[in-house]
């Protein structure tokens, strides 16, 4: 049987890794797929650049359009990133009857609904396992492995850069700016780190996970996003003292009236497995009604890890080339006509617990005033830490952990607390999740 011919859009880290994995494991991969897979053409911006893979037998071009219009190519692999040009190329490939594999989370999060509709109409597949959590097969796990479950919630560390920064801050007592500079030096963070440290990258991934978990259209604009740039070593130390760790989580949860989609720094109990995922590693915890909690852990980026997911998608596509398009696994786990709009809760309607840190005047009655404001809104306090004043200071750190409450109530309480004469400056607020089965 003839090899399946593949065209790559982009021959950088992931593209080169894909070529290497296909070459290194070619015999094993063809045994699984039933046919050999061969990269025959690839586009790159600079054809003179040195590569991490051999390009022998691969026709190179600077024109991506040559790949998507090549009649000999069966599957186009999009690895150029970005959204505008990538969208144009992917839609062109689909229109030309080619299956598509992509590692582009922004493309899927922002334009997936349009792409999947075009693919369904043309009878081709779009596979995107590599778009979320690198080498961790989390999309396949939720879409197929947990297909018998009603997914209640999922929570994930889905950006390695942010996790590296928080790990270094905790383990070495360093501040955010210092660790960010090192992450850039090591290549974990871009020169402009906004997408990583402000949560946009994680929000793209959470958009995808939330849709396949709950059978809803992709709605990136509905995700609440908060980054880690305001996290201090002080907060990390208090978290440790209270038995917690701070992780930058993406959380999708069923709730009364809709679903929650939110990315933000989160206190989680140090005994949880997710709290012990360190460095650049990723992990996703999924709560299903039948399977219970299942944890997926691994490398969230890198040439071979991401290439592993790309090649797995290629194998899936090859296995179904001769299958009835109606019998394929749906893009978003649910049949297209069963995808339905589900309200995404505004952040002020989300219920969670809270860590609050404030500078309180060193005099009697301030804690009582704060507790009174919280009590008026039905917010109960779980723990209090009040530090002794340092020499020459008339304000001391006051730390509170609360039980669960609607965020809107907490916002009102914080506004009133900040207005107290005995409170200096703004109140630091970090949400708390216990990640238990309830």
Q: Brief description of this entry?
A:
By secondary structure, this protein is α/β, with parallel strands linked by helices. It has 14 helices and 17 strands.
Which helices and strands, and how do they pair?
Layout: E1 4-9, H1 13-24, H2 26-33, E2 37-43, E3 59-61, H3 64-69, E4 75-78, H4 84-95, E5 99-102, H5 105-122, E6 126-127, H6 138-145, E7 151-157, H7 160-172, H8 176-186, H9 194-197, H10 200-214, E8 224-225, H11 233-241, E9 244-255, E10 258-269, E11 281-288, E12 292-299, H12 303-319, E13 351-361, H13 366-376, E14 381-386, E15 395-402, E16 405-406, H14 407-418, E17 423-432
Helix pairs in contact: 1-12, 2-12, 4-5, 5-10, 7-8, 13-14
């Amino acid at each position: 049987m003839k090899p399946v011919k593949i065209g790559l859009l982009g021959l950088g880290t992931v593209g080169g890794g894909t070529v290497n994995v296909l070459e290194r494991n070619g015999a094993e991969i063809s045994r699984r797929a039933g046919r050999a897979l061969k990269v025959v053409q690839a586009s790159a911006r600079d054809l003179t650049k040195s590569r991490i893979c051999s390009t022998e037998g691969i026709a190179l071009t600077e024109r991506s359009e040559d790949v998507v219009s090549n009649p000999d190519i069966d599957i186009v692999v999009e690895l150029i990133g970005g959204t505008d040009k990538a969208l144009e190329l992917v839609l062109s490939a689909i229109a030309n009857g080619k299956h598509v594999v992509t590692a582009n989370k922004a493309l899927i999060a922002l334009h997936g609904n349009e792409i999947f509709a075009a693919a369904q109409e043309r009878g081709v597949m779009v596979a995107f396992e590599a778009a979320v959590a690198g080498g961790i097969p989390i999309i396949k796990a939720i879409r197929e492995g947990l297909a018998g479950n009603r997914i209640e919630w999922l929570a994930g560390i889905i950006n390695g850069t942010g996790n590296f920064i928080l790990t270094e801050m905790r383990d070495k007592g360093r501040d955010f700016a210092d660790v960010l500079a090192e992450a850039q030096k090591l290549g974990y963070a871009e020169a402009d780190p906004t997408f990583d440290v402000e949560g946009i990258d994680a929000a793209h991934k959470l958009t995808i996970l939330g849709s396949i978990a709950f059978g809803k259209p992709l709605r990136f604009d509905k995700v609440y996003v908060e980054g880690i740039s305001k996290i201090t070593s002080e907060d990390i130390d208090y978290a440790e003292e209270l038995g917690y760790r701070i992780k930058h989580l993406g959380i999708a949860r069923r709730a009364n009236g809709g679903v929650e989609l939110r990315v933000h720094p989160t206190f989680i109990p140090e005994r949880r497995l997710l709290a012990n995922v360190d460095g650049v590693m990723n992990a996703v915890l999924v709560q299903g009604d039948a399977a219970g909690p299942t944890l997926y852990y691994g490398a969230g980026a890198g040439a071979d890890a991401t290439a592993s997911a790309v090649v797995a998608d290629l194998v899936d596509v090859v296995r179904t080339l001769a299958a009835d398009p109606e019998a394929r696994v749906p893009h978003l786990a649910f049949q297209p006509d069963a995808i339905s709009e589900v309200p995404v809760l505004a952040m002020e309607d989300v219920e969670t617990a809270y860590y609050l840190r404030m500078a309180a005047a060193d005099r009697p009655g301030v804690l009582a005033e704060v507790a009174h404001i919280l009590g008026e809104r039905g917010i109960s306090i779980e723990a209090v830490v009040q530090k002794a004043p340092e020499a020459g200071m008339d304000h001391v750190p006051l730390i509170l952990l609360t039980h669960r409450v609607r965020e809107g109530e907490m916002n009102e309480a914080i506004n009133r607390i900040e207005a107290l004469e005995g409170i200096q400056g703004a109140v630091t607020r970090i949400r708390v999740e216990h990640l238990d089965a309830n």
